[in-house]
Amino acid sequence: MGRTAVVMAMAMAGCGLAVLATASCAMPPAPPMSPGALPKAAPVPTSAPSLKPPLSPSPPSPSASPSSPSASASPSSPAPPSGSGPAVPVGDGVVTAADQPLLAAARQEAGAAVPGDDAVIVINRGPSGTGQLAWMPDERSYCLAVVREARARTSCKALPASWARIGVRLVTTGGTTAARTVFFAVVDGGHGPYGYQGRAGAAPGPDMGPVHDATAVFASGRTLSLLTYERTVGVLTPGDHDICSADNAICFPALDAYAG
């Protein structure tokens, strides 16, 4: 046996005797591993992956698109015709056999589309084939025929969208014939008869003709009063009178500021 082997045998024998006496004898620690042999740590995800599929982008709303017609201001369009239907006369405004010359004169006028007798309102039956007729295709428009000597002058217009006096929808001139100006008024409600109401009890002058009125009713239930009255052209009566209903619910100046 060589010297080296004898020394190792003696050391192991001494260690075995030491183990029996004490537990301090242990195997020397293993040498450190080289850096290349160290295991790599698994990467830790910063956030859990989403299990939901990606959402597809929503299409733009038509109202939000600048090129969409609804996004731009649409031009104003005229109001559609009213569904109330034509007005029908009530009471003395209903056409009678004696009124046929007035209707014939109105129908002879070129371009005057006069409806049937049941839709014509007779406002005034004057002497010698004179008078005033009216018809309203709906609640927003009217036609007035002023008849003189079997000849009619007809005008058809729309009622104004707003008016200055409560209950008074229109005061206008219906034409001038025989040196007389015919005034035409449309007021709310059936509060007839209408007449002059002078200031301080004064009677109307001779240049101011009587007030005639008739009642028109629509299918919607709306009731209007149609008035005509005359005045001599060029004559001014001091202290013009008001025209009022029988119950004084509606009054307006006979020559109102917005007459035209």
Structure description:
This protein has 260 residues and is mainly β. It contains two helices and twelve strands; from the N terminus they run H-E-H-E-E-E-E-E-E-E-E-E-E-E. The protein has helices at 3-21, 100-108; strands spanning 88-90, 121-125, 131-135, 141-148, 151-158, 168-177, 180-188, 194-197, 212-217, 223-232, 242-245, 251-253. The strands form three sheets. Strands 1-9-10-7-6 form a five-stranded antiparallel beta sheet, with no helix packed on it. Strands 2-3-4-5 form a four-stranded antiparallel beta sheet, with helices on one face. Strands 8-11-12 form a three-stranded antiparallel beta sheet, with no helix packed on it. The protein is globular. The N and C termini lie far apart (148 Å).
Mean pLDDT: 73
Distance between the termini: 148 Å
Helix content: 10-25%
Q: How many beta strands in the DSSP annotation?
A: 12
Secondary structure tally, helices: 2
- Given the helix and strand composition, which structural class is it? mainly beta
Poorly predicted tracts of residues: 1-28, 33-79
Q: Determine the oligomeric state from the structure.
A: single chain
Outline: globular
Q: Strand portion, in percent?
A: 25-35%
Pattern of helices and strands? HEHEEEEEEEEEEE
